Amino acid sequence: MTRFSEQQLFIGGQYVNATSGKTFATHNPATGELLCQVQLASLEDLDRAVEAAREGFKVWSRMTGTERSRILMRAVALLRERNDELAELEVLDTGKPIQEASVVDIASGADCIEYFAGLAPTIRGSHVDLNNAFGYTRREPLGVCAGIGAWNYPIQIACWKAAMALACGNSLIYKPASLTPLTAFKLAEIFTEAGLPDGVYNVITGGSEIGRGMSLHEGIEKISLTGSTATGKKVMADAATTLKHVSMELGGKSPLIVFEDAHLENAVSAAMMANFYTQGEICTNGTRVFVHESIKDAFVERLLERTAKLVIGDPMDPNTQVGSLISQSHMESVLSYIRKGVEEGAQLVCGGEQAQVAGMPEGAFVAPTVFINCHDEMTICREEIFGPVMSVLSFSDEEEVVRRANDTEYALAAGVFTRDLSRAHRVIAELEAGTCWINNYNLTPIELPIGGFKQSGIGHENGPEAINHYTRLKSVYVELGDVDCPYA
Ligand code: NAD
Questions:
Q1: How many whole angstroms separate alpha carbon 408 and alpha carbon 232?
Q2: Which of 277, 321, 365, 409 has the most CB atoms in a 10 Å sphere around its CB?
Q3: Known active-site residue 234
Q4: What are 254-280's pLDDT values in tens digits?
Q5: What is the spatial distance between Cα 194 and Cα 412, in angstroms, rounded to a whole number?
Q6: Catalytic residue among 96, 161, 186, 244
Q7: C-alpha 202, offset from chain centre
Q8: What does the buried/exposed string (b/e) look like for 322-336 if buried means 16 or more CB atoms within 10 Å of the residue's CB?
Q9: Would you call 161 a catalytic residue per the annotation?
Q10: What's CA 482's distance to the chain center, in Å?
């Protein structure tokens, strides 16, 4: 007996059976409950989705930006109307606290679609005067785009990718992560109800095999991945075979730097948000917390007082602040990093173990964990753990902390806490990170582009710049005189 009936694929504006004849299970990680079986897409289903997306593109790309905007805005209203039921489904599939999902995940997805729906009518080329001729540019959609998502923010990632792709007039084939496939389908239902033409937003399922099929497919113009750096490298190599456009939102090991003049309580709040929100399963998390040596003790004391008060529990309980990790195997990976931290000499000052939640013996709960006296070369300070594990490091001067903060192959995000504005901007300018905060952390308003440098990503999501990543620019020369020809 499963909670929901078998999940089909969504292709060409309707639910259809996968041709593979295979299914996979999706579970509630907090309880182990089997939520439902999900049909597994085959490469043949991918071909069908590409065909449907091509048909959808013909209709959608010929609409004006204003017409597209109107439909997307209806989807925004439906998303907001259904916030609570969507949040509950997301909590069942991810194990994250309802306290978060009910105010962040769906809201952020809706905000993004609203923002790009607003931009859709403004997408335009330019005019160039050339004396006896003129030129103009056309900003055109790319065609069929593909999105591949991670499991930590499933509906938000689906909404973000759809918002950018669709506002620009593209169609999209979206593949959610296999651990959290359910809400991407609810988005498909909402788009259909809002009047989106068939084939403009399609959802297929599966893991790396179908993901590879998308990266290699000749009928797909662009691939946008949210996932790990290791997967990003594979997707980019596969996409190179057809010279597809790529956008990559990948992993990180981001620094959060707290100078001696920082507002201590705010800095502690930010460090906690940057490590324990969504059980630490956030790409931009500031997992290397560099604290100036003169305030380290005061910082750690306050951090431990407040961390001890975090409520770990049933994700559906509105009081819960720390839910379940995504799976047992991910929990094992997080716990093995914690063991490595201890072995390599970091001082464990809180958490460090699996947490037991009453009535949920099969949950993957890990107590919020803090290590102090960490060093840059420790594994916990170099590798992405993607769990509630904070490493506190101390530093003595600005040049030193900038150098150490930048000493990583990642460069997704960074934060600086100081009351000295000159220093804040000076340090931010030196930090190798695509997304930065001064005196806060992890806020991602849709108006600001988000993206990583180095091995954390390519391209941007959100902000007006994203339009360039989902359109191509055509140049047109228009002759007003005769053809000037040297041939007799
Ligand atoms: P993952 O890389 O294992 O999987 C991501 C997606 O890629 C999944 O849908 C998966 O099925 C697919 N995939 C796997 N192998 C593939 C292949 N060879 N070809 C094509 N697709 C393939 O990542 P995950 O475990 O789902 O998510 C966690 C990672 O995502 C972390 O590293 C995190 O930092 C990153 N992340 C980044 C952002 C961001 O915006 N930068 C946001 C969320 C998560």
A1: 17
A2: 365
A3: no
A4: 999 999 999 999 999 999 999 999 999
A5: 35
A6: 161
A7: 19
A8: bbbbbebebbeebbe
A9: yes
A10: 53
